[in-house]
Amino acid sequence: MHASEAGFRHLETAPIDPPGSLLWNPLTAGRDMLRDPLGRLAADWRAYGDVVRLRIGPIAYYGLSHPDHLQHVLQENNRNYVKGPIIARTRILIGDGLFTSEGDFWRRQRRLAQPAFHRQRIGGFGATMTDTAGEMLDAWSGAAATGEAFDLAAEMNRLTLRIVGRTLFSLDLQESAAAVGRALTDALDIVTQRFFTLLPLPLWVPTSPNRRFVRARRALDEAVLRIVGERRGAGRQHGDLLAMLLEARDPDSGEGMTDRQLRDEVMTFVLAGHETTAVALAWTWYLLGRHPEVEQRLRDEVADAVGRRTPTPADLPALRYVRMVVDETLRLYPPVWAFGRQAVADDRIGPFRIRAGAPVNLAVWLTHRHPDFWPDAERFDPERFAPDRAATRHRFAYLPFSGGPRLCIGNEFALLELVLVVTMMAQRYRIAPVDPDRVIEPLVRVTLRPQGGVPVRIRHA
Fold first, then answer.
1. pLDDT tens across 27-79, in order?
2. Which of 68, 211, 289, 341 could pair covalently with 81 via S-S, beta carbons 3.0-4.6 A apart?
3. Which stretches does DSSP call E strand in 240-387?
4. Neighbours of 133 (CB within 10 A)
5. Whole-number pLDDT of residue 99
6. Which one is the CATH code of 3-460: 1.10.630.10, 3.40.930.10, 3.60.10.10, 3.40.50.300?
7. pLDDT in tens, 347-404
């Protein structure tokens, strides 16, 4: 019986441990999980249900996938669940930013940063997004003329890095600070490797990856702290996110962020806003390339809504189908495919005990495919997000940006960027896969990257 069948009814019986007895060798667990983590999640769900208890050596952890259970952890009893030791591994790069911080400190930082991500302020970055996307599309004209193939995923990576640099710093992180872009790539790759290592070596151990990471982090720290220092001493106002963070003041104490706090938030926003949006754009065009009828409907809407002019945030209500395509892509390929938590005290989900101190994996990949909420779940169908269908769906059945109090602060930023960029790409080019029959599998790291990239050829629309 799946755990969801028990729901959250009050039960007089004592809680029991969830099913699941898989025992992994702790020395090889990370390697074994990386072989096919998504397949492993699906197999465990089929074998044990919506609440699973598995072991890696002496460590037991819980896997949850039903929307009721995710709502319980992320919203109803969220104070009992902290980010935990796995997420803490990202602190070597992003410090105590919004992604990793906890408790009162997190609440203060969230309160300080929230005004910078108000919908009206985010809308003000629309022109920066479209200007940057326009430059990329102009540069594609040669490939359109010659039919030369290129990797769309790599192009999206460069684009989102430039957009986050311009909106956050008013700098082009690809052109004006190429070293920063390289350092970001190196640092993120190594953090990803450590994420899937059961016992990562301390940074002071002089391995080649550790030395590379320390160099990359030093370059990033120097660049960010230099920019923060220059901004504090300058009288000129900037209209970017960093300026808003510098101006933010705690309503109770009147204090702003220290340089170190600013550094940690900047690194969080750069990495979250760059990597996740890039992979979402790549998957969007992979799916459109495999579903020409969906692509044509999207193109028809773009032609009717904006024609050949540059789209703006004001056009978003008219670009409803573009947004539906984006949402369905984020369902099938959520950039962050699982959320990690750790139980502070004993808890109960249906008849099952969640033990204090245990890691809890919220398997969004499975939630987005749960048959109770997503019929024929592997099919790409943007109509799932038609307003009438979306309105009746469980709020925690679709969580590309998490949920509850720790809903991603940059979700509106990401969605605006995704819709505007997809719209502009559809206006300018026909984008076709080099091999229409090739199935691209996810490369599972911290995010779900398209394995081997997304090779395409383009022609002018």
1. 665 565 667 889 888 988 999 999 999 887 677 889 999 999 999 999 999 99
2. 341
3. 339-343, 347-349, 352-354, 359-362
4. 25
5. 87
6. 1.10.630.10
7. 999 899 999 999 999 999 999 999 999 999 999 999 999 999 999 999 999 999 999 9
DSSP string over 55-69: EETTEEEEEE-SHHH
d(C-alpha 400, C-alpha 125), whole Å: 22
- HSE value, Cβ hemisphere, 13 Å, CA-based, for 153: 19
Q: Classify residue 103 as left (phi > 0), alpha (psi -120 to 50) or beta.
A: left
In DSSP terms, 52 is beta-bridged to 63
Three-class SS state of 174: coil
The burial class, CB within 10 Å (0-12 / 13-18 / 19+), for 393 is middle
- Rounded Cα distance between 413 and 429, Å, is 24
Q: Which residues of the chain, if any, have pLDDT below 70?
A: 1-12, 21-34, 57, 174-178, 181, 235-236
Q: Report the interhelical angle of 152-169 vs 259-290 (nearest 10°).
A: 150
Cβ count within 10 A of residue 323: 18
Q: What six digits make up the tokens of 53?
A: 């208890």
DSSP 334-354: -SS--EEEEESS-EEETTEEE
Q: Which residues contact residue 63 at a Cβ distance below 8 angstroms, ignoring those fewer than 6 apart?
A: 20, 41, 44, 45, 51, 52, 53, 54, 360, 361, 363
Longest dimension (CA), the chain: 71
> For position 8, what pLDDT does the model report?
43
Q: What is the pTM of this model?
A: 0.92
